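Anyone up for a design puzzle?
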């Protein structure tokens, strides 16, 4: 097994989800910033070597990509019609992943420690027949939207009717290797209190 620090994402694409309504936050989560770096930038930089990197979200994110200097390195797409839930977003994202790519790293854009989580997953060599490597929290709950999936079974799982269906229903039956990680690594930024605890704020402050 490689250590997380040594792991690289070879023959891997990345799909980053940033299409939610951010209802609990009351503002777009991806734009929250800490030390001059946004949550979106953290997510997009968490997958070194991944090609392509696909961002799923509204067209307005193109301005964020341009501002971060990532416009030419990240493919932006969205489910059609929009608002179909995370699995509909993943289905749109997987369409931008070329045939022949072996692995796909899934991420949401609200994980402050996304690079550490991705490195931990990439360091694990799954057993033969496993379709995914997933992190689990202290309660054993699998993080289905923050996992490393083999592209072929992921594509097959997303080929059916996925609009408004939960990740557990669409992806939960895939054979997987589960990796327990500390809750602090998996803590997302879902509301203003969580953002403040993690040191994030809107660009203009609260």
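Challenge accepted. My sequence:
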């Amino acid at each position: 097994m490689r250590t997380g620090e040594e792991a690289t994402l070879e023959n891997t694409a990345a799909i980053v989800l940033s299409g939610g309504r951010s209802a609990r936050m009351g503002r777009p989560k991806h734009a929250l910033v800490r030390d001059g770096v946004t949550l979106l930038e953290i997510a997009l930089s968490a997958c070194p070597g991944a090609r392509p990197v696909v961002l799923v979200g509204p067209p307005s994110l193109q301005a964020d990509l341009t501002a971060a200097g990532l416009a030419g390195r990240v493919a932006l797409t969205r489910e059609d019609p929009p608002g179909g839930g995370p699995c509909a977003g993943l289905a749109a994202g997987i369409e931008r992943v070329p045939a022949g790519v072996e692995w796909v790293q899934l991420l949401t854009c609200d994980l402050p420690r996304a690079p550490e989580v991705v490195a931990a997953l990439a360091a694990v060599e799954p057993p033969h027949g496993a379709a995914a490597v997933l992190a689990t929290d202290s309660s054993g709950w699998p993080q289905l939207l923050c996992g490393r999936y083999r592209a072929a079974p992921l594509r097959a799982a997303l080929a059916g009717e996925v609009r408004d269906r939960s990740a557990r229903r669409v992806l939960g039956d895939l054979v997987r290797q589960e990796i327990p990680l500390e809750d602090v690594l998996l803590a997302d930024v879902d509301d203003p209190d969580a953002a403040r605890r993690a040191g994030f704020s809107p660009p203009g402050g609260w």
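A detail worth pointing out: Residues 31 and 81 are 23 Å apart (CA to CA).
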